[in-house]
Amino acid sequence: MTIRKTSSPAPRRRLSWYDPALRSWIYQGLILAVVGFVVWYLVSNTLHNLSARNISSGFGFLHREAGFAIGESAIAYTPADTYERAILVGLLNTLKVSVIGIVAATLFGTILGVARLSKNWLVARVAGAYVEIVRNIPLLLQLFFWYAVITTNTPGPRQALHPLPGVFLSNRGLKLPTLHGGAVDWMLGGLGLAIVAIIVLGHWARKRQDATGRVLPLGRIAMAILIGLPVLGWLFSGASLAVDMPYLKGFNFTGGMTLSPEFAALLAGLVLYTSAFVAEVVRSGIQSVDRGQWEAAGSLGLSRARMLRLVILPQALRVIVPPMTSQYLNLTKNSSLAIAVGYPDIVSVVNTTLNQTGQAIEGILIIMAAYLVVSLSISIFMNWYNQRIALVER
């Protein structure tokens, strides 16, 4: 005779205030209810006030004609275009100065950070003085300073400096020759593709070297790609190689491309200010590497430059990348100060839009959404890169 063991039924869980799981659910529900009530109150109160003042709401104004000009534009734009395209122009201008600023601040800040640790007394002290002075002056004042320097120390168009054929420097900006037609867009696309190809090729070459020990001449191949793909882009564009040379007409220049004083002042201020913070991040990252790594690299007969590039910086990156992300985000958000020097970024364009349409809430929401998307994109990319270079423990 076999005796079957029957499992006893699980005891019923009684609702009790002393149950921590129950309490956590209640607290979370209360917080969610409070947040929901606050959001409902703000939205309903805003809609009521707008209705009482006969102010329309919504984003329908984006499809109306803008009616104002924008001094700089990465894409074709006229005052007859819509507010939607005007805001897109402002967003592209913000992205342009942010991307160029991040690259330039990284390069200059890294040089400064290494210079602060130089064994040369003068180099280390000059780099240290630069970092301490620039970091402690507000960015807005620096933007005013660089704008004044650029606009007041350059001559007018008729007395413009003419160092090279087709190159003119005046208080209207730097005029440069450019290609006719859409060749420039195709060449820039080829350049972007070349950069991506070089990054992928470098990753593959590193894996190949680890597996086989064979070194790929990456420098010469990268140079060929950087030159070849833009040339292929020009060939595929079907445009001629005719150059649009700028020339003086009346009281201003016409033709060619322009690097405006506003863009130059904004870029200079952002790069020089952010590079001081980047220098401190790089310096602290290098100093976090154990002294024994320097001694081990020196015992192999490596020069100081090769020690930094091959041994120290790859290890310091694990300390450098997280705070560097914050500096990239700060530079992107600080670009909103462009309105102080007249550069038409997204904040400037949206301000003009809401002054004409009265859609203040919608305009502020557009600005917030734009910076949120850009900042989150930078954070996601930098977090991905940080995970790639993180030490993998066995």
TrEMBL record:
Q: What is this protein called?
A: Amino acid ABC transporter membrane protein 1 (PAAT family)
Supply the InterPro entries for this chain. Answer: AA_ABC_transptr_permease_3TM (IPR010065), ArtM/GltK/GlnP/TcyL/YhdX-like (IPR043429), MetI-like (IPR000515), MetI-like_sf (IPR035906)
* Organism, as annotated: Paralcaligenes ureilyticus
UniProt GO MF annotations: transmembrane transporter activity
Gene Ontology biological process terms in this record: amino acid transport
Tell me which residues make up the ABC transmembrane type-1 domain.
91-382
Instruction: List, alphabetically, the SUPFAM superfamilies matched.
Output: MetI-like
Q: Where is the protein situated, by its record's location annotation?
A: Cell inner membrane; Cell membrane
Its membrane topology is listed as:
Multi-pass membrane protein
What keywords are annotated for this sequence in UniProt? Amino-acid transport, Cell membrane, Membrane, Transmembrane, Transmembrane helix, Transport
The UniProt family comment states: Belongs to the binding-protein-dependent transport system permease family. HisMQ subfamily.
Gene Ontology terms, cellular component aspect? ATP-binding cassette (ABC) transporter complex
UniProt cross-references to Pfam families, sorted A to Z: BPD_transp_1
Domain of life from the UniProt record: Bacteria
Q: Which PANTHER family match?
A: AMINO-ACID ABC TRANSPORTER PERMEASE PROTEIN YHDX-RELATED (PTHR30614:SF37), MEMBRANE COMPONENT OF AMINO ACID ABC TRANSPORTER (PTHR30614)
Q: Which residues cross the membrane?
A: 21-43, 97-117, 129-149, 186-205, 217-243, 263-286, 364-385
